[in-house]
Amino acid sequence: MENRLEQNEYAPYYQPYVEMVADGDLITILSEQMKETIICLKDLSDVQAEYRYGEGKWSIKEVIGHMVDTERVMAYRILSIARGESQNLPGFNEEEYVRRANFTKKSIDELLQDFSIVRQSTVLLLKSLGEEAWLRRGLANNYEITVRALAVIIAGHELHHRSIIHERYMKSAFYPKQ
What we know:
Layout lengths: L14 H6 L5 H16 L4 H4 L10 H23 L11 H8 L6 H20 L3 H4 L2 E4 L2 E4 H24 L8
Antiparallel strand pairs: 1-2
């Protein structure tokens, strides 16, 4: 499924994520992104993965965990809306999810394995959908959204956080060398 969205397919606050995703087949984009993200992060030491670029900011481990949690929520929304759910799907408090998850106790390998498995599951779910399901609309966090918009948002959210990891963490003068 192509990812050219209409603005009425998602809430306005998702616009930055939508704009980050290049045109193309969403399943291919999501599969390739997974590989790229793992390559970028797999060699981090625990010291690097636990680095925070500022007071109160998440560590790289927490950012990865947040990416996984968010994808799980979005994939659930994809499943629900694709299957015709008419109830408003709840939002979630990302700060509370990260605070309660203990991502810093996991190794970078465990976090990336979790990311890979969740992404593969998302891709398999998307591959299983008929064309009509991709265009189906539902409510999430009190906003109307389409299944394909959720897939684009997953891709954009990953790109957003990968960019933050690169720019604010790895380029910091205080980022550990090993």
